[in-house]
Amino acid sequence: MQTITKTAIAAAALFAAVSAYAVPIEASYSISANQDGNNGLIIETTDVAPNPFSFELGASAHTFSLFKIWTPETDVGPDDRDPQPISVTFNFTSPDFVNGGSVDGETVGTSSWFLFINYQEGQVTWESNATEFTFGPNGDGKFEISLSNEDFNGGLWGLHEGKKGGAEVFATFRLISDATAAVPEPATLALFGLGLAGLGVARRRAAA
To answer: Of 33, 107, 122, 192, which shows the fewest CB atoms inside 10 Å?
Structure first.
């Protein structure tokens, strides 16, 4: 019984230590999307998350609404079926030594028929399930960002254009690995060794 209790206490302590660990995330973001009325679906966006935003990223994934996307167009024309690029660029001030980067995707207008009914909508999809970022002095800390695929401004025989018919794109951050501390420089290691040696001499003198 005592062994079980000790094991449970040790497991609880380990869980608490892991759960308590968190990486501070602070970043600003910018969105680049098609605004050319001559080619592709015109895209407009507005920030939903604070810009910059901040939170603590721990063992559990962190998901939040990042921005809203919509089109002012009233219908999907032939040119709107041409996919156009969209990207969200993140600039981090925390954690330390993080590499900035972007999550890339595309927007497109679609038009489909079902029993003589025409349904139109805009779509945003991202190139990969998640984009990885590294951080820490040794570049071994890792987290990933994924953005949600969304349909927007869907309507019968035309688009429900404007912001009201738009969709919110969600961002999910997941911590993959913690960053290790920086490797001490040779000079620092030498000083540390001298300190240990001096401590040994002092203890021998005290013993004598």
So the answer is: 192
- In angstroms and rounded to an integer, the radius of gyration of the C-alpha atoms of the chain is 26
77-119 pLDDT per residue, tens: 999 999 999 999 999 999 999 988 999 999 999 999 888 899 9
Contact predicate 151/120, CB 8 Å: no
* Tens-digit pLDDT profile for residues 127-175: 988 999 999 999 899 999 999 999 999 999 999 999 999 999 999 999 9
Residue 154 one-letter amino acid? G
| DSSP string of 48-107, one letter each residue | -S-SSEEEEE-SS-EEEEEEEEE---SS--GGGGS-EEEEEEEEEEESTTPPPEEEEEEE
Under the phi-then-psi rule, with left for phi > 0, alpha for psi from -120 to 50, and beta for the rest, what region is 78? alpha
Model confidence over 60-88: pLDDT tens digits? Answer: 999 999 999 999 999 999 999 999 999 99
Length of the chain: 208
Token pair for residue 133? 């970022």
Nearest to 56 by CA among 183, 141, 179, 173: 173
pTM, entire model: 0.77
Q: Is the pLDDT of residue 206 over 60?
A: no
DSSP label of 2: H
Residue written as token pair 């040779």:
186
